[in-house]
Amino acid sequence: MGLIKEFKDFAVRGNMVDLAVAVIIGGAFGNIVSSLVNDIIMPPIGLLVGGVDFKDLMVVLKEAYVDPSGQEINAVTLNYGNFIQFLVDFTIIAFAVFMIVKLINNLKRKEEAAKTPPPPTVNKQEVLLEEIRDLLKQQGGTP
């Protein structure tokens, strides 16, 4: 029973729940960014470079052919366009995460700055009493 209880404690710990939520939101965020890149950013870039769709960019290493038995053998290609697409996706996601972390850090700094109490104000009587004490010390009197 100890192993089951330990697993239950591990599985329902706050950090695990936070991690699960982060993974789910991250997946949805990835889909949003992929749509942003594929549907909004890449079409104008494709037009700028002559109507090229980056997903179609490839180098054919071996052409497709039909073998003697009549079976079609697919071409072997190096799909560098997909790689470019994923680089653009990654860059946008990384920048978005950076901006979110930067925003959170700024909010934390502001919150910490607001928490620090202002320096205590000094009473004029206390200052005068301290000066009198210091003068008495200098004269050899008792404080």
TrEMBL record:
Membrane-spanning ranges: 12-33, 83-101
InterPro entries assigned to the protein according to its UniProt record, in alphabetical order: Mechanosensitive_channel_CS, MS_channel, MSC/AndL, MscL_channel
Membrane topology: Multi-pass membrane protein
SUPFAM superfamilies referenced in this protein's UniProt entry, alphabetically: Gated mechanosensitive channel
KW Transmembrane helix (keyword) present: yes
Subcellular location: Cell membrane
A matching Pfam family: MscL
Keyword Calcium: no
Protein purpose: Channel that opens in response to stretch forces in the membrane lipid bilayer. May participate in the regulation of osmotic pressure changes within the cell.
Assembly with partners or alone: Homopentamer.
Database matches in NCBIfam families: mscL (TIGR00220), PRK00567.1-4 (NF001843), PRK13952.1 (NF010557)
UniProt similarity note: Belongs to the MscL family.
Protein's name in the database: Large-conductance mechanosensitive channel
Taxon lineage: Bacteria, Pseudomonadati, Bacteroidota, Cytophagia, Cytophagales
